[in-house]
Design a protein that fits this description.
Elements lengths: L1 H7 L2 H6 L8 E2 L8 E7 L5 E7 L4 H12 L7 E6 L5 E3 L16 E7 L12 H16 L7 H16 L9 H4 L10 H11 L7 H12 L8 E6 L5 E6 L3 E6 L2 E7 L3 E7 L2 E9 L5 E9 L3 H19 L27 H7 L20 H37 L14
Parallel strand pairs: 1-3, 2-6
Antiparallel strand pairs: 2-3, 4-5, 4-6, 7-8, 8-9, 9-10, 11-12, 12-13
């Protein structure tokens, strides 16, 4: 009985069973003056509104969002927001929401994949893989991830198989495929190639198609790379990409280096400058530390990059996270109050267990107007067929008229000339 009452009057129960809440809304008790209205944009294109107390930490919103979406492997995901300077940030669950998100109400945030698993097939839950699938589709469409043409066609076919099921020649054609959006440079030829590949995927369930999508996407060079634009000491622009294995360095589109996490001794920042201390071997095989300095557009963007790097290092490299400030790490800048507070990938994989049953509903993708060229081709084909039919009918009429004329004309005399023998 005590357990029942405890569950019945818990904060979670009150939060999700408040009478009068509209669909897509989660409310807390209290006056409007004491609550913050948050709008969370989801990966399937929908959004939900949540209410938390003004004094509550952002962790309260995280709990509501994860509970609403029924996510177990929640450590891979985060809520992002954009400040007045159009700099993106991850919502820190340990700090009050109101001190972080300044634009509102409603305070708008995006539910996104924060840490991309290097091996998506190791994700326990179908729901987690579904959210990864939606995130990667969005990454490709928005140009953050650019696959080669053949890979883009294959990924598009898996996406269509997940949504439409097995190919049906009476329903599925290139014109229907053009209602979907796969990439920013999508062409008619790509849609026709996707259709041909789609025909070969019969028998794959949505879960199968999504798993195959992830296993294909994970081999892309920029899969899961959190890219940040910086400037080097030489005043040239570079890109620093955070990955599960380390920090990639790009010059334009060319990858020119990789700092593996175990070789990174220290990562610090001061103002607009980011300091990266890396241990490398010299020509004789002796270890030497090298300091790289990068400059960013603002102090905020510099600190954001540093926070993202610390989070990536903690999540992918450590087995556990230091919970107290006395547990010092040379990698962490102790001059900042920030400390990664979530579980590491190792802890998440060890703690999360597959549920016996878990059901969820996949939301259809947004559809767009069909490509006009298909209708024009169809109209041209119909016009051509009609023209051919008219031409055939006219020829038949002409042939019949000629036959009638021949049968009614006078019979001409036939003169038979016999050759004489000389």
């Amino acid at each position: 009985m005590m357990r029942f009452l405890s569950n019945r009057f818990s904060r979670r129960y009150r939060r999700h069973h408040t009478s009068g809440a509209a669909a897509g809304e989660v409310r807390v008790s209290g006056t409007k003056k004491n609550v913050l209205v948050c709008k969370v944009l989801l990966l399937d294109g929908t959004d939900k509104q949540f209410e938390i107390k003004k004094s509550a930490k952002a962790e309260e919103l995280y709990e509501q969002v994860f509970y609403s979406l029924d996510i177990v492997e929640k450590d891979y995901f985060g809520l992002s927001y954009t400040d007045a300077e159009q700099i993106a940030h991850w919502l820190d669950p340990t700090k009050p929401l109101k001190k972080q998100v300044k634009i509102g109400p409603p305070y708008t945030l995006r539910f996104r994949v924060k840490f991309y698993s290097s091996e998506p097939s190791n994700l326990h839950e179908e729901l987690t893989r579904y959210f990864f699938f939606l995130q990667l589709k969005q990454d490709i469409l928005q140009g953050r991830l650019i696959p080669p043409y053949d890979t883009a066609v294959e990924l598009g076919a898996f996406a269509v198989q997940s949504e439409l099921g097995d190919y049906d020649e009476d329903i599925h054609n290139a014109e229907l495929i053009s209602e979907f959006r796969f990439s920013s440079d999508q062409t008619e030829t790509m849609e026709e190639d996707i259709l041909e590949k789609f025909k070969t995927l019969n028998g794959q369930t949505p879960a199968d198609a999504e798993r195959n999508y992830l296993n294909k996407a994970k081999w892309l060079e920029m899969y899961g790379v959190d890219m940040h634009n910086v400037m080097g000491k030489d005043s040239n622009e570079y890109g620093l990409g955070l990955t599960p294995t380390g920090i990639l360095v790009f010059e334009g589109k060319n990858k020119i280096g990789l700092f593996f996490w175990p070789r990174v001794e220290r990562l610090d920042f001061k103002g607009k400058k980011l300091y990266l201390v890396v241990m490398e071997d010299d020509e004789k095989g002796n270890e030497q530390s090298h300091t790289f300095v990068f400059k960013l557009q603002s102090a905020k963007s510099c600190k954001h990059l540093w926070k993202c790097a610390v989070s990536h290092h903690s999540f992918f490299r450590l087995k556990g996270v230091a919970r107290h400030r006395t547990e010092k790490s040379g990698f962490i800048r102790m001059g900042s109050r920030f400390n990664y507070s979530g579980r590491t990938e190792f802890q998440s994989a060890k703690a999360n267990k597959l549920r016996r049953s878990s059901t969820f509903e996949r939301r259809p993708s947004q559809r767009f107007s069909r490509r006009p060229s298909y209708a024009q081709k169809r109209a041209a084909a119909a016009s051509s067929v009609a023209a051919n039919a008219i031409a055939i009918a006219q020829k038949r009429h002409k042939d019949r008229a000629a036959g009638v004329a021949a049968s009614t004309s006078p019979t001409s005399a036939t003169v038979v000339t016999k050759s004489s023998t000389l």
